[in-house]
Every structure is written in structure tokens, then in C-alpha cells.
Amino acid sequence: MSDEIDPQGVEHARELLSEAGTVLVLTGAGISADSGLATFRGADGLWRNYRAQELATPEAFARDPRLVWEWYGMRREAAASCEPNAAHLALARFAIERDGITIVTQNVDGLHTRAAEMLAVEQPPAGEGRVVRADENKAARLPLELHGCLFRVRCTQCEARYGHREPIDASAVNTLPTCRSCSSMLRPDIVWFGEPLGQAIEIAFSVAQEADLCLVVGTSAVVQPAASIATVVRQAGGSIVEVNPEPTPLTSLAAVSLRGGAADVVPSLVG
Ligand code: BJW
Ligand code: ZN
């Protein structure tokens, strides 16, 4: 752990985590910054170079699907070339080893899922000496992905929704991917501004009502309704532990706010 992280804060956070029966972990783009992915806001954030309204809205897709797919093609390549970092892996292990842990992420990069899958393969049941599939053990408790996933698509016309890892050819509108069922244009399975979040947010809020602690990692906590998950935990009597190099709107509500990078701090909390 690096020197500037407050050791008393880490100790206090560890105590709170060990006393908590149920923990909701809420993550944002900052947890993947240590894997080399850009965050959205801040000095090097994606929204500094690209205007959100031109790319991450249903209106933008209706206006210029090729441009939006080109941007998501770049994002998919960036995410696919990264690896889960020590924070993703520590949280995946935490969720495997302890009951009552729910990981809720705003991220669309799939790195929490990949961390859980890596651990599932790493940890065959004792004595059996075989590789286990991710859905055979507790690693199947995959994160709730509030804002969707870069590697899933959904149809713009019918209900079809499926995994899609192949490269996207966004050189022209007629090379964009189309639906297997109805041949209409597919879109990224991402929640854009102004769109509802679906069932994942309902589950997250009901877990939040019961959680003893919310561990918030690497989010600016400005995008709703995700940011309210932590405040719901607080209002229902639970506490907040925050990990972020910068203060956020949640800092004043947190029992402990640790200033540092996720990959440095998170393993020391849940390891
Ligand atoms: C580190 C680190 C390291 C750096 N370690 N940390 C006015 C007021 C309130 C709300 C609204 C409003 N106007 C509009 C709204 C609603 C809107 C909203 O919240 N807007 C705000 C921006 C104002 N929300 C919506 O539109 C949502 N839908 C909705 O409300 O629907 C209502 C509805 C109901 C019923 C029917 C119809 C509609 C949808 C929100 C979708 C968000 N989607 C995005 C883009 C996805 C596209 C894509 O990925 O391409 O999701 S926005 C973007 O922000 C992305 C993220 O998931 C999300 C959150 O960002 P995050 O993760 O917090 O990242 P950053 O960059 O902000 O912060 C990174 C943090 O990491 C920083 O704090 C750093 O310090 C830290 N960090 N290095 C740890 N090493
Ligand atoms: Zn279709």
C-alpha cells in the first residue's frame, strides 16, 4: 500500500467491513482506471474529448448510428485489451468467500465479470483437481451491471438481446450489425442518458435498503439514479466507505473516505 493512504482510515474501514453482515459494493469508472481505461469526467476523461450528447443518447444513435457504433467499437477494443486489476480481483474474491456481498457496477467494460470468471477457473473444489465453470460455484454471483455492457447488443425493433464480441465494421451504415431474428439494426446494450435502467436498479435499491455497508469505489457519484444507491444505504442506517483519489458528493456522508487508487486501497480493505 502506498504511504499517503491513511492507515487509521484503512483500519476503521476494515473493522466496519468485518462487522457488516451485508455489503453492497458500488463501483464506477475509477476502478478500471488502474487497468488503463479512461474515466468519463476529470482531466483525462472521455467526455473531455467527446461530447456525451453526440454519442451516449438515443437521439445521437437515431441521427448517426455509424458514428455512435464507431465510438463503441473503439471502446470495445480498449476494454477487451485490458485486464482486471487487483481491485476487481479482490472484490471478486470477497464476493466468493463471504456471503451477503453484492457488487453493483456502473461500468460497461465487463472487467468485474472477467475477474469473477478468472477466480472460478483458479479455484477448483478441493480434491477434485479440475477446472470449474464460472456458473458452478459462487463466482456465478456476477455483478449487477446498471448501465449495460459493451459486449452485449440489443435490437432497435424487437426484444432480442445477446452477447456480441466480434469486431464491429462501422465503415458504413450497411456494414453495422443486424438482428438475427428480425434483421433490424442492433445497438449497444448500454443505458444512454434519458433511458431507464431496467431491473438491475430495482434489485440494487432493494439490496441497498438491507445493506449494513456500502463500499463505494471510483465513482464521481453525479449520475442518477446510480449515485442514490449509496444514499439509500445511509438513510436506511448503514454506513458508507469510499475509495477515491478525489472527494465526491458522497464524501461528507461517508464514515471513512480513503484517498487513493482502487488497486492500491481495495485489496487492503477486503483482503
Ligand atoms: C479513481 C481512480 C482510481 C480516478 N481509483 N477512483 C439533472 C439532475 C439529476 C439527474 C439528471 C439531470 N439531468 C439528467 C439527469 C438524469 C441523468 C443524470 O444523472 N445526469 C447527470 C449527469 C446530471 N441520468 C440518466 O439519464 C439515467 N437515466 C434516467 O435517469 O432515466 C430516467 C427515466 C426513467 C423512466 C423512463 C425513462 C427515463 C441514465 C444514465 C446513464 C449513464 N450512462 C453513462 C454512459 C454510458 C455510455 C458509455 O459508457 O458509453 O454511464 S454516463 C457515464 O457516467 C457512464 C458511467 O457509468 C456514469 C458514471 O460515471 P462514473 O463511473 O462515476 O465515472 P466518472 O468519470 O464520473 O468518475 C470517475 C471517478 O473515479 C472520479 O471520481 C475519479 O476521481 C475516480 N478515480 N482514478 C479509484 N485509480
Ligand atoms: Zn430484432
How are the SSEs placed, and which strands pair?
Blueprint: H1 7-19, E1 23-27, H2 30-33, H3 46-49, H4 52-55, H5 58-63, H6 65-80, H7 86-97, E2 101-105, H8 111-122, E3 144-145, E4 148-155, E5 161-163, E6 186-190, H9 199-210, E7 213-217, H10 228-235, E8 239-243, E9 256-258, H11 262-270
Parallel strand pairs: 1-2, 1-7, 2-3, 7-8, 8-9
Antiparallel strand pairs: 4-5, 4-6
Helix pairs in contact: 1-11, 7-8, 7-11, 9-10
The site of zinc ion (ZN) has 8 residues, from loops.
Summarize the structure.
This protein is α/β, with parallel strands linked by helices and 271 residues long. It contains eleven helices and nine strands. It folds into two domains: 176 residues, Rossmann fold (3-Layer(aba) Sandwich); 85 residues, SIR2/SIRT2 'Small Domain'.
Question: What brief labels describe this structure?
Answer:
9 strands, 11 helices, binds zinc ion, six-stranded parallel beta sheet, alpha/beta, binds ligand BJW, Rossmann fold, SIR2/SIRT2 'Small Domain', 37% helix, three-stranded antiparallel beta sheet, 271 residues
Rg: 19 Å
| Major β-sheet profile | 6 strands, parallel
Secondary-structure arrangement, i.e. CATH architecture of the largest domain: 3-Layer(aba) Sandwich
Let me know the average pLDDT. Answer: 91
Q: What's the CATH class label of the largest domain?
A: Alpha Beta
Order of helices and strands: HEHHHHHHEHEEEEHEHEEH
CATH superfamily of the largest domain: TPP-binding domain
Instruction: Report the structural category.
Output: alpha/beta
| Percent range of helical residues | 25-40%
Q: What would you call the shape?
A: elongated
Strand content: 15-25%
Say what oligomer this is: single chain
Number of continuous helical runs: 11
Gap from first CA to last CA: 12 Å
